[in-house]
Amino acid sequence: MTAQETAHGANDTDSSHNVVFEAPVETIGDRELVRLPGEASARLPSRGQVAARVRLNGSAVAAVVEPDGRRGHWLAIDTGHGLEAGDVVNVEIEPTKDWPEPEIPDDLGSALGEATDIAGVWADITPMARWEWVRWVNATRNPQTRERRVEVSISKLRSGKRRPCCFDLSSCTDPELSTSGKLVDPDQT
Fold first, then answer.
1. Do residues 68 and 173 lie in contact, with contact meaning Cβ atoms separated by under 8 Å?
2. What are the per-10-residue average pLDDT scores of the chain (189 residues)?
3. Bridge partners for 23 per DSSP
């Protein structure tokens, strides 16, 4: 464990699982983010998305830490934090099992709204599983592939599937910030 990565903090969970580090803010496209150092990322409980309570320079936020497609992670920085590229931020990540509700994309939301027969199934699956469905639908830039994924999501939910299958969550990052499922470097935008 490095000096920048220590376990500390008082909270309602075992603080020995907290991941603490310093890293610079980067800009990719029009979004700010922080890449987790390899050692910090390795301490998270999953190579895919991780629900967490996060402290940025001491300010608490709920967040989902994202995979970078390279077996690491990154964290979106809300513009409300007043941080910009090059600023070094102190980050403390406390993994949690309390997943926030995902933002449902319009196309998937419309399909779910029309499929009243599966409303109970959607409501019954965990927020983590809903994040997986949203990630699977959002993981493509191709409009035809996306349309097909929405259709398949409804079909799978109708058949009782509670999670999408056959895709690697650790290699599935935000397509607006990635190429071939891998988070791009700031100089590639």
1. yes
2. 36 65 93 95 93 93 88 88 90 94 96 96 93 90 94 96 79 76 75
3. 89
Tell the burial category of 140 from Cβ atoms under 10 Å away from its Cβ (0-12, 13-18, 19+): middle
Tell whether 140 and 160 lie within a shared domain.
Answer: yes
Q: What is the pLDDT of residue 12?
A: 40
pLDDT of residue 67: 92
Per the domain annotation, does 7 fall within a domain? no
Residue 7 φ then ψ, to 5°: -100, 120
The CATH code of the domain that includes 52 is: 2.40.30.100
Distance CA 140, CA 157 (A): 20
Comparing CA positions, the residue from 120, 83, 94, 89 lying closest to residue 4 is 89
